[in-house]
Amino acid sequence: MSDVRISGYGDDLTINGVRIGDLGPAEHEAIELEKGGQNYAPLEDVVVSHVQDSSTLICRKPDPDGVRAYIEEELLDGLCCYSAVNQGQLNKTIVDAVIAHLQDEKIPTVPRSIRHKYMAAFLMAATAITKMDKVVPKVAGVEAPELMAKLSRRWGYRVKGIPANEAVIVVAAENFHGRSLFAVSASTDPAAKDDFGPFLAGIEVVPFNDADALEALFKEKGDKIASYIVEPIQGEAGVILPSSDYLPRVAELCKQYNVLFCVDEVQTGFARTGAPFAHMLYNVHPDLMACGKAAGGGIMPVSFVAGRRDVIDLLTPGSEGSTFGGFPLASVAAVFSIKAMVDDNLAENAKAMGDRLLAHFESIRSEFPDKIKAGRGAGLLTAFEMFDKPGLDGHKVSLKLLENGIYAKETHKTTVRLAPALTITAEGIDHIGESIRKVIRDL
Ligand SMILES: Cc1ncc(COP(=O)(O)O)c(C=O)c1O
């Protein structure tokens, strides 16, 4: 006799007599508080039920009349799972491919120790779109910068000649590379580190967008520095764009001091910023690049490191691996995520719609110059920042936007990030813009 009874599907899914479709937002919250780890603080009083179209979530909210368990409302997805769903929710190209793969092709899972026919397809598509020599598949986004760090160290010892165990990896302040021990060791956010030490040795931090500081560090410790790992645009830090000459100078300095130039494009990649990958906006070519999120189109977790042949060739059988990295289903999802990005001209649409959204931010800023400090972004990775004054609170704005049918989330106390699907229409952008204007007016 088992302790768990599971039946039904969708709203009829019933676990030990509790039918999911009967739960209101408060009950979902209570179960999550009681049975889940509290490593997130989801927006209050809203539960996503399903997706209506590429940009619209159907969500459940408390019934104001208190009669039903909940009411359902449309919500424009202004966040796209932190840029994991660039191709739009349930993108038909990707979904059709995944369903056909499962139903007709019937090869979801084999390990890397035996070849499968979709790996070649994945490698050809991923090297072509990234303009890199080689690719190594992984699963979660965080695994890609993690692998860049390992590759950097190995290259540092075997090629650059750094003495054993003395390699240094340089990172930028306010970075976000995920939650692994490398990522939190590299983090400058106390909340990400508190009581998770001891941290990895051999990490140095420089301010973002300060090439002089990087040069000074390279001058001082260049012999031991294996790589500089940097986000081309810092997403989690609040959509912080570097000055136009920063990445070209970084690339130049890395060349001069024989340091690998590694970009973390987990959030900025796959057309999000109006170019296939954000570093391309700055006409630089990194040695290694980490990708994730939209690499699987929001359908499958897919990540990878793409890079120079001689660096990736430092990996040997047994030195690295991942059970699900590049398994057949993920390979297919990745290939068709790339196809959707190319066929649907997502980079071009991101640029056009991003410019339109930035124009809204600018118009709102000029209407409320005492409230809005700045709007910024590249393509559809955008944010607006409020002044740090009483009443101007990012979380409050997120909740008010929710009331107006927009899902967005603050990144910092005063900054709200907007990163909708790259398939969004001009009407969708105008809806976001006018909703923000209304919320800011009422603050
Ligand atoms: C730049 C960057 N790197 C790495 C990650 C980690 O990705 P994941 O949460 O999928 O592990 C993120 C996630 O937001 C990110 O923005």
CATH class call of the largest domain:
Alpha Beta
Total beta strand runs: 18
Which radius of gyration do the C-alpha atoms yield? 23 Å
Mean pLDDT: 97
- Judging from the principal axes of the Cα atoms, what is the shape? globular
Classify the secondary structure makeup into a structural class: alpha/beta
Largest beta sheet: what is the strand line-up?
Answer: 7-13-12-11-10-8-9
CATH architecture of the largest domain: 3-Layer(aba) Sandwich
Specify the helix fraction band. 25-40%
Spans of at least 5 consecutive residues with low confidence? none
**Count of individual helical segments:** 14
Number of domains: 2
Ligand inventory: pyridoxal-5'-phosphate
Structural summary, described in words:
The protein has 443 residues and is an alpha/beta fold. It folds into 2 domains: 141 residues, Aspartate Aminotransferase, domain 1; 252 residues, Type I PLP-dependent aspartate aminotransferase-like (Major domain) (Aspartate Aminotransferase, domain 2, 3-Layer(aba) Sandwich). The protein contains 14 helices and 18 strands. Strand 1 and strand 2 form a beta hairpin. The longest helix has 22 residues. The mean pLDDT is 97. The protein binds pyridoxal-5'-phosphate. Pyridoxal-5'-phosphate binds next to loops.
